[in-house]
Design goal:
Order of helices and strands: HHHHHHHHHHHHH
Number of strands: 0
Strand content: under 5%
Radius of gyration: 26 Å
Helix content: 55-70%
Largest sheet: none
Structural class: mainly alpha
Oligomer: single chain
Length: about 280
């Protein structure tokens, strides 16, 4: 028995020493597999397409920024970037504030109809009216073709609200009770006590909302496709990749490899992809 115990103990010591090594190797491999496509996009965007073949790109080949100049020189790209930044900032901050207010109200145990309202919001997470009713509602509210169609329908997010509500319910009730005793009302408690204490979960919710707004393009396709000034950066990127708009057709004529030009449709798409990814990466 002692021999078996010593053998088992020796095996455990070996595993304890070697596990970090294997763990590092596996995670490093996963990182390289997931990170290289992004690295390839960046390297291709700053390379001369006439010199790039099918090989792996670890560094730029024929370094050039012409693709970025061509992409950023397009007025549609610049306008789309401003629209995406505006909707991401206004939508994420406004939506988080609305979700925080709803979560604070539903966290009150003495709220009349608390269970009904909670169930009401939860149902919206699993069921929706659909695209056509949503479009009709937006049209009747005169939101179609308006910037606010990006903001108002997404101000309330049930999932984010539940996250904040759960966090608030984890806080000691004595905080609110002591504030009531000192004469504070619900508004004062909400602004000066609950909101500051919810900074961790609010930071996460702002990130979720910002990513949702930044990556969204279907609402542009549905509501603002005929309004070029309201196109988002993701929508422009989608049209460039899919070649379904006039801007993509125009960009397809900027150069060709046969003539040795340093700008091609693929290089422009890569440049726009980097421009699209970089801001949200900075947010992370």
């Amino acid at each position: 028995m002692r021999t078996i115990g010593r053998f088992t103990s020796g095996i455990r010591k070996i595993l304890d020493k070697t596990f970090p090594v294997y763990n590092f190797i596996i995670l490093a491999a996963v990182f390289l597999i997931t990170a290289y496509p992004f690295w390839y996009v960046v390297m291709y965007s700053v390379s001369n397409p006439s010199k790039v073949g099918s090989e792996f790109l670890l560094y730029p080949i024929g370094f050039t920024l012409e693709s970025y100049k061509q992409a950023l020189a397009t007025a549609e790209i610049f306008d789309a970037f401003l629209v995406s930044v505006a909707r991401s900032a206004i939508g994420s901050l406004g939506g988080t504030f609305i979700s925080l207010m709803v979560a604070y109200g539903l966290s009150k145990r003495n709220l009349p109809g608390r269970k009904f309202f909670t169930l009401y919001f939860i149902i919206t997470m699993y069921f929706s009216a659909g695209m056509i009713p949503g479009y009709l509602v937006a049209k009747n509210l005169h939101l179609v073709g308006s910037f606010w169609v990006y903001i108002l329908p997404l101000l309330m997010n049930a999932y984010n609200m539940i996250l904040i509500k759960t966090y608030i319910e984890s806080l000691p009730e004595s905080l609110s009770e002591s504030a009531y005793i000192d004469g504070a009302n619900d508004f004062t408690i909400f602004i000066k006590i609950m909101a500051p204490l919810c900074k961790p979960v609010l930071a996460a919710v702002v990130l979720f909302a910002c990513v949702t707004h930044w990556n969204s393009y279907t609402d542009t396709l549905i509501y603002c496709a005929t309004e070029p000034k309201l196109h988002t950066l993701q929508y422009v990127l989608m049209t460039l990749i899919g070649n379904v708009t006039k801007s993509a057709t125009d960009l397809s004529a900027v150069g060709d490899l046969a003539n040795g030009n340093v700008v091609t449709p693929m290089s422009v798409r890569m440049a726009v992809t980097v421009v699209t990814i970089l801001p949200i990466s900075l947010v992370y």
